[in-house]
Amino acid sequence: GEYAFSPPLPFTQGQEVVGRILDWGEGVAGRKVGDRVMAVTSFVSGNGGFAEECLVLDDFCLDAPHDLDDTRAAGFLIPFHTALLALERRGRLERGETLLVLGGAGGTGSAAIGVGRALGARVIATAGGEGKADFCRSLGADRVIDHRSEDIAESVMADTGGRGVDVVFDPVGGAAFTSASRCIAPEGRILAVGFASGEWGRVDTAHLVNHNYSVLGVIPTGYVPAMREEMQQRLLGWWRTGRLELPVHELVSFEALPSALERLLAGDVLGKLSLAVGTSKSGSEPIRNGIPAP
């Protein structure tokens, strides 16, 4: 994958995990050995989750609900918290507006489809191939554009009667971002979330001004734990009441990780993969690690 930083070596990958607490550092309160949690790891410093034991960040460590299995819990935090933060807080998505989700069959894109629907938007998603298009539809997308055979901007404009979409959720960047800028409605909001294409979208300032839309960056860091907990409870509440669909992730063994990563690179994965890395030295349950599809 691509990283926005140069990690120190040795470096262990893996950003999201679910597992049980073995110990905690100074200043951490309210935890006990054996608590089942879902968390973001300290992978930036090399202590990622592709391991039997890892370090996690206390301010991004939440209790794992008993009714959410490990495979889905491992890939829940970053995609769904990012989607809710992006669409509601940053993008100000309103009920009845139209949302375009780029890369709808990927990890964060698939979460954005569900969150967009839960917020009352009409959702258009892009995907490459009929299998991925069907996956997006299963999550609630009202319309899916196959970018392999359709022009994104032209299809969106035709679908919206020439008006364009109100909000764009973009974890792809590159040419997809350019296409989105050609089909954004006046006063629309493009949310720059990631660069699965290998490059960030390039903002044409003159085009932005002349067409009166905004581009906003989104990253789910820097927010207080209380806000994360509030988002967590809302998301889980939507899921429990049938308002939000959670994809079932494929579970792969640690031995199969190299081939799984090659499949991710080739775009041959729906949503996310969850990695079973074995049992920790404490004898606790297997740790799962959520791996996002590009």
Per-chain topology:
Layout: E1 16-20, E2 36-41, E3 56-63, H1 70-73, H2 77-90, E4 98-101, H3 107-118, E5 122-127, H4 130-138, E6 143-146, H5 152-159, E7 165-170, H6 174-181, E8 184-192, H7 205-211, E9 214-217, H8 225-240, E10 250-253, H9 257-265, E11 272-276, E12 288-292
Parallel strand pairs: 4-5, 4-7, 5-6, 7-8, 8-9, 10-11
Antiparallel strand pairs: 1-2, 1-12, 2-3, 11-12
Helix/strand/pairing class, anyone? alpha/beta
The total number of structural domains is: 2
Largest sheet: 6 strands, mixed
Strand order in the largest sheet: 3-2-1-12-11-10
Q: How much of the polypeptide forms β-strand, as a percent range?
A: 15-25%
CATH topology (level 3) name of the largest domain: Rossmann fold
Q: What are the low-pLDDT stretches, counting only 5+ consecutive residues below 50? A: 280-284
Number of helices: 9
Tell me roughly what share of residues is in helical segments.
Answer: 25-40%
Tell me the CATH superfamily of the largest domain.
Answer: NAD(P)-binding Rossmann-like Domain
The gross shape turns out to be globular
Rg (CA only)? 19 Å
Spell the H/E element sequence: EEEHHEHEHEHEHEHEHEHEE
Distance between termini?
9 Å
Based on the coordinates given, report the CATH architecture of the largest domain.
3-Layer(aba) Sandwich
Task: Give the overall average pLDDT.
Answer: 92
Number of strands: 12
Please give the CATH class of the largest domain. Answer: Alpha Beta
Give a quick rundown of the structure.
With 294 residues, the chain is of the alpha/beta class. 30% of the residues lie in helices and 22% in strands.
